[in-house]
Amino acid sequence: MGYVAIKGGRDAIEGSKTAFDFLRTQQAENEQPLQAGAIENQLRLLHSRVISEGGLYHPELASLAIKQAQGDSLEAAFILRAHRSTVPRIAETEALDTSKMRVTRRISSAFKDIPGGQMLGAATDYHLRLFKMELLNESPEAFRAVSKQWMDELDLDTIPDSFPKVVEVLRNENLLAPIKQSRHDQVPFDITREPLVLPLPRSAALATMARGEQGGLLSIAYSNMRGYGDIHPTVAELRVGYVPVMLPHPITGKPMEVGEVQVTECEVVAMYEEQDGKPMFTLGYGACFGHNEVKAISMAILDRALQKGEQHGPSHPSEDAEFVLLHVDGIDSMGFCSHYKMPHYVTFQSDMDRLRTTQDKQAQEEAK
Amino acid sequence: MSSQQQFGFLDEHAKKEIRRTALKAVAIPGYQVPYSSREMPMGRGFGTGGLQLTLALIGKGETLKVIDQGADDSVNAVNLRDFIQMTCPGIDTTSFTEEADLIQSRHRIPEKPLREDQLLVLQVPYPDALVIVESSEAKRKVLHGEADYSRLLVKLYEDIVKFKEITIAHRYPTRINNHYVIDPSPIPRWDVPKLHNSKALTLLGAGREKKIYAVPPYTQAIPLAFEDMPFRVENFDDENGQRRACERCGCTDSFLDEYIDSETGNKIYRCSDSDWCEEQMGFPRSDTADYLPETTVTNVKSSKELVNA
Q1: Structural contact between residues A217 and A209, judged by C-beta atoms closer than 8 angstroms
Q2: Cβ contact (<8 Å) for B297 and A334?
Q3: pLDDT of residue A219
Q4: Who among B34, B73, B298 is closest to A4 (CB)?
Q5: Of A84, A128, B19, B198, which has fewest CB within 10 angstroms of its CB?
Q6: Which of residues 62-91 of B touch A (CB under 8 A)?
Q7: Domain B12-223 maps to which CATH number in 3.40.50.720, 3.40.50.150, 3.40.50.11310, 3.30.420.100?
Q8: Which residues of A touch B73 (CB under 8 A)?
Q9: Out of B6, B167, B304, whose CB is closest to A354?
C-alpha cells in the first residue's frame, strides 16, 4: 500500500514517549538530573503555579510533575490534578483565620503605614530586569555563599510572626461592611465533588478560580482593569505566608495541626456601593496555594467583578460568571485545545460531503 | 501509575456518582445530567467523559471494545484501551463488535447492529445541540426545559435559504423521545439513524463539560428536519450516481473514509469501521480476546527517525 494510513499506532505512541524522554536526557554527558528539591526551591514560582493549578498541595509530587512534564506548567498541573482524582476526601478543615498567617511578605497599597508595617519580603517587583550574568555559570561555592550570608545577617528577633489584617482597619472605620455572621454557617461548595450548575454560590466561584490557570485569570481580569469593566480596585492587602492545616484528631476529635501550606492572599477594596442603606467600599477576595501574586490579585478583581455582575447583571465578560468560571481552568482548556490534534477523519469526511453537495447545488443553479 | 490504585482508577465515590448520574440520564432520555467529572490522566477532549463512564460501569469478566474513527488501532483508541486494561484487571478486550459487552467509541457507531445486552458509550466534546445558536449555558438550560428549539429550526431554515442545503455535517441535532434535542456527539449523519429504537443503551459522556446523557433502548431518536427538506446521510455516490464500494472489502453500505494514494495520487475509499471491513473480507472471527488487527499500519516513521532527522 502506498498511502499513509494514520490508523494504527501502538508502536507510534511508544516511540513518541521514548523520544520525549530522550530529549530530557540528551545532554547526559554534561548534565545532572534535576532533583525534586532543586525544582521546589530553584524553580520556586513555577512550582507554586503548578501546586496552585493542580489543586493539590503536595510539594514533592509537584516537583516530580514538573520534571516529568519537562517544565510545561499546564501538563505538570494536569498530572497533579489527575492524581487528585484517585484520592478520597477524608475530612474537611475548619475555615482558616488568615490573620494568624505566618507571613513572609505583606503589603498594602491603600495606606502608607499599616498596623505592623509593610513587609516587602521576597518579590521581583522592584528588580531591574537586567541579566545577572554571574548566574550563567554559577559555581556551587558562590551558590552556597548567597544563602549563608543572608542567614548570617538576619535578625530573627525583630520579625513578628503575624500581622493584623488591613481590612479590619477599614471595618473599624466603617468604610467596609462587617462580615455577616450568617457567612460562618455556610458550607463551602466543593467543586471536586458537586456538579457546577449555574448560578453558583460565591464559594464555588472562588474555588474554581483558586485552581484556575494564571494566564487565563490574568487575561480576563486585565480586560476589566483596562476598561471592559470598572471596579476600580485598590490592593488593601497582599500577603504571602504559611497557614496551619487543622484536622480533627482521630480519637479525641479535637482539631490538631497536621502541617502547613503556603498561600498567597489578596483583598482588593473596590468602588463603593450602598449596602444596608449606607455607602461602603466593596471587597474582592483572592487566595491560592503557593506564591502567586498575579494570580491572587487577578482572582480578587474577578471576584469583585463577578459579584457586581450578579447584583446588577453582567455588562462585561469579566462580570459574567459563566464566561469567567467555565474558561479559566487550565486543565480543561489545554486538553480541549490539544484534542484538535487527534484524528478527525470521520467528521471531516462528513464536512466534505456537505461542502461538495452545496457546491454542486450552486453549480446547478448557475447552469440554469 | 502503581498497582496500589484500585479497580477502575476512580475512587468509589466517583464511580457511584457516575452510576447514579447515568441512571438519571436513562430515566430522562436526552436530558444532560450534570456531574462533578474527575480529571483523568489523559487530556480533557480525549474522551475523558466516555472513559469515566466505562471505568464506572465495566466489571471483571466483561469484554471491552474501544474504537476511534471506527478503528480499534487508532492512536487514541489504543491509548484508552491500554489505560482501561491497566486499571481494570480481569476484563477482556476485543475488536469484534459482537463479542463486546461495552463499546466505547469516538465519532462512530459500529455498522453491525448492537444487541440488547450491549452498551455503547460515546465520547462527547459538546453536549449541547443548542450551543450553535446560544452560547450561554444558563440560557440553554431554560430553552431545553421549555423544549424550545425554534432557533435551531431557524438555523436549519437559514442554511436552506443560503445554501439550499442543511450545512450541519456531523453532531446532527436529534430529538429524543419527543422532547430533548441532543448533540449525538460528532458521529456522522450516517450513524444517527442507528440511535433510533436501538436495542442497545447508548450513554454519552462529556468529561470537560461535565454532563452525562442517554438514548435508552427502544427510544425515538429523530434528527431535526423539515417535511420538504428531509434529513439526509452522507452521499457516497460517484460521478455516475453509482454507490462507491470499499476498495478493500467491496462493501457498498458502510460509511467510507476517503484517502489519497500517495503513489498514484488516486482517490481511494475504504470502510471507516475496520472491524466491519474485516468481517466482510471473511477474516476469522476468533474468541482470542487479545487479537487486534495491526494490518493497516503502513509507512509510519518511528519517532526516533523523526527526532534524528
Answers
A1: yes
A2: no
A3: 98
A4: B298
A5: A128
A6: 68-71, 73-76, 78-79, 82
A7: 3.40.50.11310
A8: 7-10
A9: B167
Note whether B113 and B193 are within 8 A (CB): no
Say if CB B208 and CB B49 are below 8 A apart: yes
The answer to whether the beta carbons of residues A64 and A86 sit under 8 Å apart is no
pLDDT at B245: 96
Question: Domain map of chain A by residue range?
Answer: 10-24+31-85, 98-126+161-333
Does the CB of B14 have a partner CB in chain A at under 8 Å?
Answer: yes
pLDDT digits over A106-123, tens only?
999 988 888 888 888 899
Mean pLDDT of B268-295: 77
pLDDT at A88 over 60: yes
Q: How far is B298 from chain A (nearest CA, A)?
A: 6
Span of A180-184, B125-129, B269-273, B302-306 with lowest mean pLDDT? B302-306
| Domain boundaries of chain B, sorted by first residue | 12-223, 236-283
* Predicted pLDDT of residue A135: 93
Q: Please count the residue pairs, one from chain A and one from chain B, whose beta carbons lie less than 8 angstroms apart.
A: 215
Q: List CB contacts of A101: < 8 A, sequence separation 6 or more.
A: A162, A239, A241, A242, A243, A263, A265
Using the beta-carbon criterion (under 8 Å), do A2 and B165 form an inter-chain contact? no
Cβ-based neighbour number of residue A311 at 10 Å:
10
What letter would DSSP give residue B99?
G
Angle A264-A122-A226 from CA coordinates, rounded to 5°? 60
Active site residues of B: 30, 246, 249, 271, 277
- B234 reaches A (C-beta below 8 A): yes
How many residues are there in chain A?
Answer: 368
Q: What is this structure's pTM?
A: 0.87
Amino acid identity, position A217: L
pLDDT at B302: 38
Q: Identify all chain A residues contacting B37, using CB atoms and an 8 Å cutoff.
A: 195
Evaluate the omega torsion of the peptide bond into residue A88 and state whether it is cis, within 30 degrees of 0.
Answer: no
How many helices (H) does chain A have, and how many strands (E)? 13, 4
Question: Given CA atoms A196, A198, A204, A209 in this order, what sign does their dihedral have?
Answer: positive
Q: CB neighbours (10 Å) of residue B261?
A: 14
B224 Cα to chain A: minimum distance (Å):
16
Answer whether B208 sits within 8 Å of A7, measured CB to CB.
no
pLDDT in tens, A303-322: 999 999 999 999 999 999 99
